[in-house]
């Protein structure tokens, strides 16, 4: 029976020590809101950190913030139409605070986040590990072209869009040597983006299999020489500390992986001054980065083996088995609610 006819859907509710599959009422969408049937969700590393206790998050909640789905109901002035296949932003923003007005919606003062809200709040269906999700007003939505498989489109909502934000902070990459820290989903994606923008791309990762896979996305193994840009997706202070002295004059270090507390990084301010270094960071992303992510994937869908990075999907009933590190060279586990 169609869930919309019954007014119920199924969601995986994380309760700290277990995950329960429960039936949840589907609310009628309000102004600017949409109800989306989730076609595929991929498991981001931050959700693995949440369920393992390494990351603080509201509990109980419906996790999942990398998803693609089909719009099945809309309120007035919604950003997409019924029948559209879409991806959506991690952040839900007010559009009115001083940060939003400045174009820093990623740090909205009243921010809410997909897959990071309490289940017992007014936004119960807030995550992608469910048959349906409600997208409130303030969610950026991008229609997905037919050329992109669900497995390629879903990671755009977090991994690919975050890479776009990080690469933007690095500036013009044409002809520059770029070192990427980490050959996970973000690092491998970053290799493809940087190569597409004309960079000579190096990548470092302790897992040789992942390094080999990154070669299919435009990277070469790190050669230990100096570079113009370092993009860090590891969050490892050791890697950051070892790569910083390799920056050329006017080089740039972009930090994107340091999202949990770790050892402090020792930096000599004199060296930063004399070398004209730029050290910057990004967290979350802007709506333009999500649009850029889908455009980039569309342009490179025949150039790189994107589907190989994602596992075959498991059903929602087996979600606990999916909330584990991806096997082998796979970088994302997929769930098909």
TrEMBL record:
Ranges for domain Enoyl reductase (ER) come to 16-301
Supply the enzyme class, top level: oxidoreductase
List the keywords (alphabetical): Metal-binding, NAD, Oxidoreductase, Zinc
Q: What Pfam families does the database record attribute to this sequence?
A: ADH_N (PF08240)
Enzyme Commission number(s): 1.1.1.1
Q: Which CDD domains match?
A: MDR_TM0436_like
Q: Which cofactor does it need?
A: Zn(2+)
- UniProt keyword ATP-binding, yes or no: no
Q: Is Mitochondrion set as a keyword in this record?
A: no
Cross-referenced PROSITE patterns, in alphabetical order? ADH_ZINC
GO cellular component labels: cytoplasm
Any one Gene Ontology MF annotation carried by this entry is: zinc ion binding
Please give the SUPFAM superfamilies that the UniProt record associates with this protein: GroES-like, NAD(P)-binding Rossmann-fold domains
The record, for InterPro entries, names:
ADH-like_N, ADH_phosphonate_catab-assoc, ADH_Zn_CS, ER, GroES-like_sf, NAD(P)-bd_dom_sf
User: Which family, according to UniProt?
Assistant: Belongs to the zinc-containing alcohol dehydrogenase family.
What protein am I looking at?
alcohol dehydrogenase
Give the species this sequence originates from.
Answer: Gordonia namibiensis NBRC 108229
């Amino acid at each position: 029976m169609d869930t919309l006819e019954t007014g119920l859907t199924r969601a995986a509710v994380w309760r700290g020590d277990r995950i329960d599959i429960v039936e949840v009422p589907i609310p009628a969408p309000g102004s600017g809101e949409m109800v989306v049937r989730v076609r595929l969700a991929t498991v981001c590393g931050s959700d693995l950190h949440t369920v393992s206790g390494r990351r603080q998050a509201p509990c109980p909640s419906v996790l999942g913030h990398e998803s693609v789905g089909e719009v099945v109901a809309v309120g007035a002035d919604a950003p997409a139409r019924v029948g559209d296949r879409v991806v959506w932003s991690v952040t839900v923003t007010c559009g009115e605070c001083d940060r939003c007005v400045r174009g820093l919606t990623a740090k909205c003062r009243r921010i809410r986040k997909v897959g990071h809200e309490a289940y017992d709040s007014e936004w119960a269906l807030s995550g992608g590990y469910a048959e349906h999700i409600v997208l409130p007003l303030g969610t950026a939505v991008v229609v997905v072209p037919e050329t992109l498989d669900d497995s390629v489109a879903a990671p755009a909502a977090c991994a690919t869009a975050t890479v776009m934000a990080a690469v933007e902070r690095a500036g013009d990459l044409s002809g520059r040597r770029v070192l990427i820290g980490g050959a996970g989903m973000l690092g491998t994606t970053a290799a493809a983006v940087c190569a597409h923008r004309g960079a000579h791309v190096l990548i470092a990762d302790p897992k040789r299999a992942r390094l080999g896979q990154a070669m299919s996305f435009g990277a070469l193994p790190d050669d230990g020489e100096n570079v113009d840009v370092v993009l860090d997706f590891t969050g490892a202070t050791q890697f950051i500390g070892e790569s910083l002295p390799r920056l050329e004059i006017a080089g740039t270090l972009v930090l994107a992986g340091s999202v949990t507390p770790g050892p402090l990084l020792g930096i000599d301010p004199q060296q930063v001054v004399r070398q004209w270094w730029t050290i910057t960071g990004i967290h979350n992303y802007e709506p333009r980065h999500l649009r850029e992510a889908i455009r980039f994937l569309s342009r490179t869908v025949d150039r790189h083996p994107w589907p190989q990075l994602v596992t075959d999907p498991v059903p929602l009933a087996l979600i606990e088995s999916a909330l584990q590190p991806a096997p082998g060279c796979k970088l994302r586990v997929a769930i098909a609610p």
